[in-house]
């Protein structure tokens, strides 16, 4: 699996010819696309696009969406996702603006790789506390990279992309990887 993060292209997870995009500006030609934030009501949604809570299977990718009620309202829906790709459980929380409920965490389940950031006004300490609670093997921050590193007491590896397999991450314990495409 190859994971790349870009402010405009979103998060891309690629295994061979299979690709998953999260929060891209444009849908493009991915097999599956997830949006952690969407305006309500939404227009017609292509079959490969997931918006909102529920359980989905697209192109062999199992997706579980949990609603983030504290960040959703009549105009916008926020969803966190767990996607199982090539045996790796990826959790996409997006840029959090409020704490995640225990119910949402239960729906998301175990996590191998957590991809999360703190939205403007959200305390990075709370996001790091949540990350510790979820016990992922790898954490990829979407924002506040230096604060994440400081709170976790780590010096992150600066990588343009993460490349690995499930067996590669089994020995990690909340290893912080800093993306450089921001």
Core attributes:
globular, 16% helix, Metallo-beta-lactamase, Chain A, 182 residues, six-stranded mixed β-sheet, nine-stranded mixed β-sheet, single chain, alpha/beta
Summary of the model, kept short:
The protein has 182 residues and is of the alpha/beta class.
Could you outline the blueprint of secondary structure elements for this entry?
Layout: E1 2-6, E2 10-15, E3 18-22, E4 32-35, E5 37-39, E6 49-51, E7 54-58, E8 61-67, E9 76-85, E10 88-96, H1 102-108, E11 113-118, H2 124-134, E12 138-141, H3 145-152, E13 157-159, E14 161-163, H4 166-169, E15 175-179
Parallel strand pairs: 3-4, 4-6, 10-11, 11-12, 12-15, 13-15
Antiparallel strand pairs: 1-2, 1-14, 2-3, 5-9, 7-8, 8-9, 9-10
What does this molecule look like?
There is one protein chain. This protein is of the alpha/beta class and 182 residues long. The chain has one domain (2-179): Metallo-beta-lactamase, Chain A. It has four helices and 15 strands. It has helices spanning 102-108, 124-134, 145-152, 166-169, and strands at residues 2-6, 10-15, 18-22, 32-35, 37-39, 49-51, 54-58, 61-67, 76-85, 88-96, 113-118, 138-141, 157-159, 161-163, 175-179. The strands form two sheets. Strands 5, 7, 8, 9, 10, 11, 12, 13 and 15 form a nine-stranded mixed sheet that branches. A six-stranded mixed sheet has the order 6-4-3-2-1-14, with no helix packed on it. Strand 8 and strand 9 form a beta hairpin. The two termini are 21 Å apart. The mean pLDDT is 88.
């Amino acid at each position: 699996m190859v994971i790349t993060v870009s402010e405009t292209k979103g998060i891309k997870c690629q295994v061979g010819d299979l690709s998953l995009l999260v929060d891209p500006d444009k849908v493009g030609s991915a097999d599956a696309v997830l949006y952690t934030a969407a305006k309500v009501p939404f227009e017609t949604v292509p079959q490969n696009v997931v918006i909102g809570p529920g359980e989905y299977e697209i192109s062999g990718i199992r997706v579980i969406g949990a609603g983030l009620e504290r960040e959703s309202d009549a105009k916008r829906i926020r969803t966190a996702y767990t996607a199982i790709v090539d045996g790796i459980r990826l959790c996409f929380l997006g840029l959090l603006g409020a704490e995640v409920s225990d119910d949402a965490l239960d729906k998301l389940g175990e996590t191998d790789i957590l991809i999360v950031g703190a939205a403007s006004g959200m305390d990075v300490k709370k996001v790091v506390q949540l990350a510790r609670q979820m016990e992922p093997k790898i954490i990829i921050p979407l924002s506040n990279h230096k604060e994440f590193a400081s709170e976790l007491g780590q010096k992150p590896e600066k990588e343009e992309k993460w490349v690995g397999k499930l067996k590669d991450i089994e020995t990690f314990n909340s290893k912080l990887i800093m993306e450089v495409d921001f």
